[in-house]
Write a structure and sequence with these properties.
heterodimer, A: about 400 residues, mainly alpha, 3 domains, 16 helices, B: about 200 residues, globular
């Protein structure tokens, strides 16, 4: 691999100050540091670091933790396709269909997002930030398999430019970038991202009695007609036991590409927590916030939706995926340790509130996280203020 | 129960800023620091909570057609009466703040007397008439709308304080980026729209 290094060294003067492509220095630097660790060391004076972790390694860890979700999502896309069209299929067939639908979305998201980043970094002359490595993977995972590719592109550009770059790039944004992309699509093109869009059907006929409604959709319509939610889930007619508890836990259900499997999200959570990249406090508090709120609703039990057993809430929809990969976003989450507990708990509670009370949205985790992103700086402000007060008191005694 | 849900609704679902875009001028201008924003938020809560019931009484007993105290229909005086009440209340708040906290008085500056023409305050009174609230409902609504406004402006101020570490393009510094943040906050607040309590 020596020749890559010599190639880079040879080309480097072209991009440095006074070189022919001086404007594109940051483009070059981004590729160089992607291939080789930068040679920079900490100066003698100033802060010392003891770990070589940098933003690239940090972000790549998150991408690695998402791979189980991605692979499962690819398989599940194919699985749902064959279930809905009533065909028998081998593992390979399912993966093939899945790859055929999911891969273009991933490619579009990365290609469009990275070229937007490169363009802006070159215009504004700032280093290219690696944050998009994660965002580019998160965006496809929260999209339905049938999303038109141009919409993915538009949403990605919107999220990168308005959600992040106007604030100065990675680490300075207010809202989670991937969720901004999804919320943008959700409000701009609602018909392609809600309703029965979750299963890729191709041009095949569906089986008799087929319905593409997700568990959340089934529960919402059951409770509005006064039926028991659990009963409605267990009596899906076109496919035996499609929405059993274990199916929903393992993720053999329709939904956004990466969000269906709670198991895969938990594996990702284990990777994130083990490497110290994600905050376990946020993950735990989101789950407990959701569980406690849902349990309180069980006790009140004013309508059928409130009566849905609390542990069901944890496995349906994107709660687990959002809790693990989006609520833990270190940029937009609360920064203080106490604040993380409050922030996560409120996300969980709000998710259940939106699910149960808001007929306009079947799923609440997306908007709950965005809303708490807005309030995270405020939570930090008050926690820091309280810390100051406590220490001042200690100092004067 | 009805009053509680009206209160929650006016804080979140029918938020003055994100559902009706009322009171944007002070929302954008006085949100640079959290402490100032809290001060303005509290002032708006106070003024709204006082003026909405007072205006309700005036509307009910004096202005409305067939009101019990006045024989003629004085509905055409509605705006000017409401504004007069609001201005008087703001004057009161101003004097109190100047006496109690001169620092806050200084940092609020011109925006304190300008609460008198803050659209969300007159809006509160007019909504109260339009929606046929009772006196109790009007009081709760006034308090809830004020709290919604305060919540929004304090959250924006906290974000803007954090924004000091950001690298915003020159052309967008100041109001431009604040407008963008307001839009993004609006997306997040959409989570409440559609909730019927």
């Amino acid at each position: 691999m020596k020749f890559v290094r010599t190639f880079l060294d040879k080309k480097k003067p072209l991009f440095e100050k006074g070189g022919k492509y001086e404007r594109f220095y940051y483009l070059f630097e981004a590729h160089e540091t992607l291939l080789y660790a930068p040679k920079l060391t900490t100066p003698n004076k100033g802060a010392q670091i003891r770990d070589a972790i940098d933003l690239k390694r940090f972000m790549i860890t998150v991408v690695i933790s998402m791979i189980p979700c991605l692979l499962f999502g690819i398989w599940n896309t194919g699985h749902q396709h064959f279930l809905a069209t009533g065909q028998e299929a081998e593992l390979l067939d399912k993966l093939l269909i899945g790859l055929q639908t999911v891969l273009p979305i991933v490619i579009v998201s990365y290609a469009v997002g990275l070229s937007t980043e490169f363009t802006i970094a070159t215009i504004r002359q700032h280093p290219i930030n690696e944050g998009f490595l994660v965002t580019g993977m998160l965006i496809p995972l929260v999209m339905p398999a049938t999303i038109p590719l141009w919409q993915v592109a538009v949403a990605t550009i919107f999220a990168v430019v308005i959600g992040k770059e106007v604030f100065g790039g990675t680490g300075m944004n207010v809202l989670n970038v991937a969720l901004t992309a999804r919320a943008f699509l959700y409000f701009a093109y609602p018909s392609q991202i809600s309703g029965e869009v979750w299963t890729y059907l191709g041009d095949l006929e569906v089986v008799q009695g087929y319905s593409g409604a997700t568990p959340l959709g089934v529960i919402a319509s059951a409770s509005s007609s006064g039926q028991s939610a659990v009963h409605a889930l267990s009596s899906i007619s076109w496919q035996q036991d499609l929405y059993s508890f274990s199916n929903m836990f393992f993720g053999f259900i329709p939904g956004s590409i990466g969000e269906t499997s709670v198991l895969m999200a938990l594996i990702g959570a284990a990777i994130l927590i083990f490497t110290g990249v994600g905050s376990w406090k946020i993950i735990v508090s989101v789950f407990s916030g959701a569980y406690i709120t849902a349990y309180l609703f069980n006790l009140i039990g004013a309508n059928e939706y409130m009566l849905l057993p609390a542990h069901y809430h944890l496995v349906i929809g994107g709660l687990a995926f959002g809790a693990v990969y989006m609520a833990t976003d270190p940029v937009t989450a609360a920064q203080t340790e106490k604040g993380k507990w409050i922030y996560g708990f409120l996300i969980g509670a709000l998710t259940i509130l939106i699910r149960v009370f808001n007929p306009a949205y079947p799923e609440g985790i997306m908007l709950a996280i965005l809303l708490m992103n807005v309030f995270a700086p405020l939570i930090d402000y008050f926690i820091v203020g309280a810390n100051k007060k406590r220490r001042l008191k200690r100092a004067t005694v | 129960m009805n009053l509680i849900s009206l209160g929650i609704e006016s804080i979140f679902v029918k938020n003055m800023i994100f559902a009706y875009f009322l009171g944007m001028c002070s929302f954008l201008a006085v949100s640079k620091k959290v402490s100032t924003a809290i001060g303005l938020g509290a002032a708006v809560i106070f003024v709204l909570t006082i003026t909405t019931p007072i205006n309700w009484l005036i509307q009910e007993y004096i202005l409305k057609e067939g009101a019990s105290l006045v024989a003629v229909d004085l509905t055409f005086l509605q705006y000017i009466m409401f504004i007069a009440i609001i201005a008087a209340m703001v004057q009161l708040v101003e004097m109190v703040i100047e006496k109690v906290s001169p620092a806050l008085y200084g940092s609020l500056g011109i925006f304190l007397p300008l609460i008198a023409v803050n659209c969300s305050i007159l809006g509160g009174s007019l909504f109260m008439v339009q929606r046929d609230y009772t006196l109790a409902e009007a009081s709760v609504f006034g308090f809830g709308s004020g709290t919604g406004f305060a919540l929004a402006i304090i959250a924006l101020a906290a974000i803007r304080e954090k924004l000091r570490y950001s690298n915003v393009p020159n052309g967008l510094k100041g109001l431009g980026i604040t407008m963008l943040i307001t839009g993004l906050m609006g997306i997040a607040f959409k989570s409440f729209i559609g909730i019927a309590l």
